[in-house]
Write a structure and sequence with these properties.
By secondary structure, the chain is an alpha+beta fold. Helix content is 15%, strand content 44%. The protein has two domains: 30 residues, no CATH class; 123 residues, Immunoglobulin-like, CATH 2.60.40. The longest helix has 15 residues. Keywords: Carboxypeptidase, Hydrolase, Protease.
Length: 157
Amino acid sequence: MNDLGAPGEAFSDDLILAGIGSFLDEFDPPPGDLVQRVQFALALEDLDVEVARWERLDDLAGVRGSGTGTITFTVSDLTVMINLTKIGKLHRIDGWLVPAGQYGVEVRVAEHGTSSTTADEGGRFVLDNVPRGTTQILVHLGDVSCRRTVVTPTVVL
């Protein structure tokens, strides 16, 4: 006899699903910080934002163990390209916006708050001393009267 019932006994859907659930819990459990990541992402729910999508991910950019890498995000008429450089326990983010413009750029890191800068007329920006953690970049386009905010998916630095 096994956990799925006696030999020759019909398996119920509930029994099979319970077995699959046990298998996944043992061999592929959810990340320990899953709740923190979800809460971090939902903190933007009160803002009117557009979410960019991953366009291209160079080898392991932003993934644990990687020192550098380039990620490109796009949404309708905006492309955000960032290059991540690990410097000790911190990161430097060099970024470029297309179309270029002097837009506000903000980086949010879970449990570390935010820091901001303004892209230059060529669309280039730099964010220094970014701590490790679940990170999102926000780009604020337009002036206060018609501001539009674009947010990238989270990246774990």
